[in-house]
Amino acid sequence: MNIGLELILATDLDGTFLHPDKPHEGSPLYRMVHEHREHIALIFVTGRGYESILTLLDDPAIPVPDYIIADVGATVLRRQGDGFAPILPLQDAIAAGWPGREQILTEARQIDGLHFQEVPQENRCSFVYEHDTAKQHAQALAQSLGLDHLVSAGRYFDFLPRGVSKGNSLMQLLAIEGLPTEKVLTAGDTLNDLSLMRTGLRGVVVGNAEKGLKEAVLADRQNGKAPPVYLARAAGPLGILEAIRHHAFHRMLGLTPAETSPLQGDAELVMVYHRQPFDEVTTDTGVQRSLPKSPNGILPTLLG
Fold it and tell me: Lower CB count within 10 Å: N or C terminus of the chain?
């Protein structure tokens, strides 16, 4: 896989690779990945469960990833044939640190304002909390169980095996698969992507990212850590395209800046008109232009 590989895009899905409000705005990025697939490896790094990702791949416009890091880093899969299989050395280590969902649910039911998310998930438990008191009790529970936790978007709380995060799972995957870290671009939009931004790899925080993630990246800069993370202006997948140009990955792919522009390839209508929008009249003073005597419907529109 490394032969000719110029970009490894390790991206969050919702709000990042997938635009939250305008699905069509992903098209320029998806086309670029499709057209240069032999030089681009794609890794989905998401809080979604594996089953939820499979339904997304029913859309032929969305490129199929080479790897999936799901459940906020707790599930790591490699593409194999028409499906995906666990990367066993890594997946086994993650599972060994997980006490099981039932133990967590039994304890978490005692916390007022903490609600389990009924979504497909493996080796983690995801909740929604209503207020800070519920969050604080959940944090204490995670500590008592010897687990890590993750808070994002001001309402989500994940119990995770110790040491598991998007960033840590990505770095282990790269090492196991022998993938070059200098070719990686990470992308995200919420605080559960902060571990990606702290890997030391090149990254992008897309324009629609939550305030907490942007503030954390800026704080890292001020503290002298200076991770190579770009704060994009554009939202979602267009922000990723913006970062591909900023980090000069377009040069590695042999593309011009225009070819990675959000506007590239997006025209829906091209008009070619065979007649001048004026008449020419010859007078004593020369050739004068005047409005046509019998304009069709296109001319008034163009002139307007």
Answer: C
